[in-house]
Amino acid sequence: MTTRWFGAPVQRFEDDRLLRGHGRFTDDFDEGALECCFVRSPYAHARIRSIDATAARAMPGVIAVYTAVDLPFGGVDLPLLIPHPNLTHGRTQRCLASERVRYAGEAVAFVVAETRYLAEDAAELVEVDYEPLPVVITPEASSRAEHLVHDDVPGNVAAEMLQEVGDVEKALREAPHRKRLKFRYERAAASPMEGRAVWARWSAGDRKLMVYDSTQSPTSIRGGLAVLFGLPESNVEVIAPDVGGGFGPKIMLFYPDELLVPYASMQLGRPVKWTEDRQEHFTAVNQERGQVHEVEVGFDAEGRVLALSDDFIHDGGAYTPYGIILPIISAAQVPGPYRIPNYRVRFRDMYTNATPTSPYRGAGRPHACFVMERTLDAIAADLHLDRIEVRRRNLIQAREFPYDVGVAWQDGNTVVYDSGDYPTLLDKAIANLGPKPAGDNVGMGIGIYVEGTGVGPYEGAHVQVLVSGKV
Questions:
Q1: Which of 87, 149, 287, 300 has the largest CB neighbor count within 10 A?
Q2: Spatial contact of 281 and 169, defined as CB atoms under 8 Å apart
């Protein structure tokens, strides 16, 4: 068995090609493709009174303009990828909105033309009559439920989940010290160097669909397209070429373009492509991060945490295409490497009139780490103790493994740490970090984090054996 992956740097082979400009990204594919753009809502919340694409369709060079009524799947909600029993009011958008838009950037029409320039000009001729509605733009406003994002979702609550280990109320009552804290974590957009892009070609003769997609999940998209268009999977090929940054949002499926570009190619008999611009990325690609945490912590005079209660709201945006994976992960990861004998966490996943959320760079983990580490800093400040020493006193000890955290992980199983030596890890990190550099403008912080790996309840592998016998 080869050991070249262990104990030595793994050599990268793609760098030379990419650095010399020889990469091939989705937008590089052409073959005389028609180009597209979307008509997107400028309103965060509005009722659509009418859509008139007559002038756009009459413009020279415009091949097609699609609205929801022009699509055989226009009235079908996009899939909810990961259902959950606590997600009692899951909602997903449609390829093109026809009755109501719920975030600025939601697509209402799709324009196909000979060039992108013509498509953009034609998009400005699509007349959409909007009736603006009250906007719910922060999770706090959503929780007040003065206005609803979805009329049939009480209180704007997509999901609620409560978990408790130990007796938190009793431990808080008896704790020598108690403190209430509020932490706010703002939204963020991924902003990869390469935005999203899709290119598709339909071969009518052999009924085969070829798609290039700047995505992190080509196999899942392949399966979904096969089902949507009634094709065997063997007749659908989805390739992710060079991808200029994914970071999570590109693992999402389906975005409207991933259905509309192939559909247009099948209808029009020519290759079709769409490439996202930077403004679209900030409004129409899933985001992450927005959470507000209300924490109550009980601790002793030595800084040891006796009880922790975290009640937080998660900004899910206008829809929940990826279920409630993000707040579940946050809830599970708040304790981190620390011994929290009494832990209670409740979250509510709230609808807002903002871009939907899905996993992005840490997928709920940074929120949890931020909450726990800032809580320990607050304890240290209250007791006039060294921040590192407070962490050391709360770390799970090596003899305590396997350690059952007692709350659910994203796969439904209880979080159990199998092994580790966190105190030694902390000591080595501090030794390597060294003393704080001189200067008032030089800060030094510390944060400790446990990553969840081996996510079950299954694992899979593919092995390819060539005719030569090479694996």
A1: 149
A2: no
DSSP string across 93-114: -BSS-SSEE-STT-EEEEEEES
C-beta of residue 356 within 8 angstroms of C-beta of residue 255: no
Radius of gyration of the chain (CA): 26
What CATH code would you report for 27-133+190-284?
Answer: 3.90.1170.50
User: What fold characterizes domain 139-188+288-433?
Assistant: Aldehyde Oxidoreductase; domain 4 (3.30.365)
Residue pLDDT, tens place only, 238-279: 999 999 999 989 988 899 999 999 999 999 999 999 999 999
The domain limits of the chain are 27-133+190-284, 139-188+288-433
Contacts of 282 (CB under 8 A, 6+ apart): 105, 189, 191
- Residue 442 has what pLDDT? 85
Of the candidates 248, 244, 255, 249, which has an alpha carbon nearest to the alpha carbon of residue 211?
A: 255
Q: pTM for this one?
A: 0.92
pLDDT at 458: 63
Give dist(CA 41, CA 150) in Å, integer: 17
Cβ atoms of 339 and 306 closer than 8 Å? no
